[in-house]
Design a protein that fits this description.
This protein is α/β, with parallel strands linked by helices. It has one domain: Thiamin diphosphate (ThDP)-binding fold, Pyr/PP domains (Rossmann fold). The protein is built from eleven helices and seven strands. α1 (about 35-60) crosses α2 and α4 (about 105-115) packs across α11 (about 310-335). Bound molecules: thiamine diphosphate and magnesium ion. Thiamine diphosphate binds next to β2 and β4. The site of thiamine diphosphate has 14 residues, from β2 and β4.
Length: about 350
């Protein structure tokens, strides 16, 4: 077959994305003392819950996979505090406990899911990676890396199609951002101007592989460039910066401008999952983040500057500990599912 003639080269290469509208630069959220206290409590709840989940795993009370969210708390809390439960939807990967807690879902039923009990949010049959709460608009909990991006794009399409005013927030990692289906989803989302926020949680590792070793474009907020999707890079260790970016993103998307990407720069303190010996990074690196960039310490310091007293913060610490102790007790004592449950929630027809 004859090749078609090459088009004549223009004298100058046009700019990659001419005249593209962009959202404004986000500003840090100006929280009142009460608002910041609320974020602090939520982050602390995630931290203590995850620490306890790690212990229960060690005791053999949690089976299967278990991916902890310690270090990344400001991301879920900052973003989800700006969403409207019952109107918007959220979807994420397997590192999902924190996202559920940040949405105000009962810690008891989340912990009971981890221990595989009937009272768990997926009746004890989903475990750590497969938690859902449709009434909260929380669509999982997915183990296939990147799959939630396409599913989330479908949820955004549903919001647009039914005109319900909702936005879908899809979380995924730096590793998932190299998946092919992510870019098919980006293309559709921008083409159809879907109400979608893509939140890339750049915790700098995909299992044992660092971003430096795996990403040809490590600035993940630029990953939508070829689809004309704007992106913003955000300090994911600062809950107020995250909340500020969430507001900018929501305004952009709710304004009918189509999707937006947020790259949240964050760090996971623990291994990829409970079975990760973490030999691919140094102790000093992890310690550096814990000591100098911890999102909870940062919020505590700001609260003190806003007039919170030490005993007030200590009291919150105690309340959170009690909630987590209660969740662990519930998760250990509540019964396992009946054997007959093996046959429910299973698709047996052809679709
Ligand atoms: C399609 C697919 N490929 C590979 C895996 C194995 N896997 C599980 S988690 C993971 C790393 C993903 O890293 P990232 O997206 O950065 O998320 P993080 O774990 O850091 O939150 C891989 C490769 C998988 N579950 N699904
Ligand atoms: Mg990662």
């Amino acid at each position: 077959m004859a090749r078609s003639a090459k088009p004549t080269a223009s004298a100058e290469t046009p700019p990659l994305t001419p005249n593209r509208a962009r959202p404004p630069e986000p500003t840090r959220f100006e929280a009142s003392k009460d608002q910041l206290l609320d974020f602090y409590k939520q982050m602390l709840l995630i931290r203590r819950f995850e620490e306890r989940a790690g212990q229960l795993y060690g005791l053999g009370l949690i089976g299967g996979f278990c991916h902890l969210y310690i270090g990344q708390e400001a991301v879920a809390v900052g973003l989800q505090s700006a969403m409207t439960v019952g109107k918007d939807s959220v979807i994420t990967g397997y590192r999902d406990h924190g996202h559920m807690l940040a949405y105000g879902i009962d810690p008891n039923v989340i912990m009971a899911e981890l221990t595989g009990r009937a009272a768990g949010i997926s009746k004890g049959k989903g475990g750590s990676m497969h938690m859902f709460s449709v009434e909260h608009g929380f669509y999982g909990g997915h183990g296939i890396v990147g799959a939630q991006v396409s599913l989330g794009t479908g949820l955004a399409f549903k919001h647009q199609y039914s005109g319900d005013g909702g936005v879908c927030l899809s979380y995924f990692g730096d590793g998932a951002a190299n998946q092919g289906q992510v870019y098919e989803s980006f293309n559709m989302a921008e083409l159809w101007k879907l109400p979608a926020i893509y939140a890339i949680e750049n915790n700098q590792y995909a299992m044992g592989t660092s971003v430096a070793r795996s990403a040809s474009e490590p600035d993940f907020y630029k990953r939508g460039e070829s689809f004309r999707i704007p992106g913003l890079q955000v300090d994911g260790m600062d809950v107020l910066a995250v909340r500020g970016a969430a507001e900018t993103a929501l305004e952009w998307v709710r304004g009918g401008n189509g999707p937006i990407i947020l790259e949240l720069k964050t760090y996971r303190y623990r291994g990829h999952s409970m079975s990760d010996p973490a030999k691919y990074r140094s102790r000093e690196e992890v310690q550096g983040f814990r000591e100098h960039h911890d999102p909870i310490d940062r919020a505590a310091k700001e609260l003190e500057a806003l007039g919170a007293r030490e005993d007030e913060l200590k009291q919150i610490d105690k309340e959170i500990k009690d909630i987590v102790v209660e969740a662990a007790k519930f998760a250990e004592e509540t019964p396992e599912p009946e054997a007959a449950e093996l046959h429910t929630d299973v698709l047996v027809e052809s679709y």
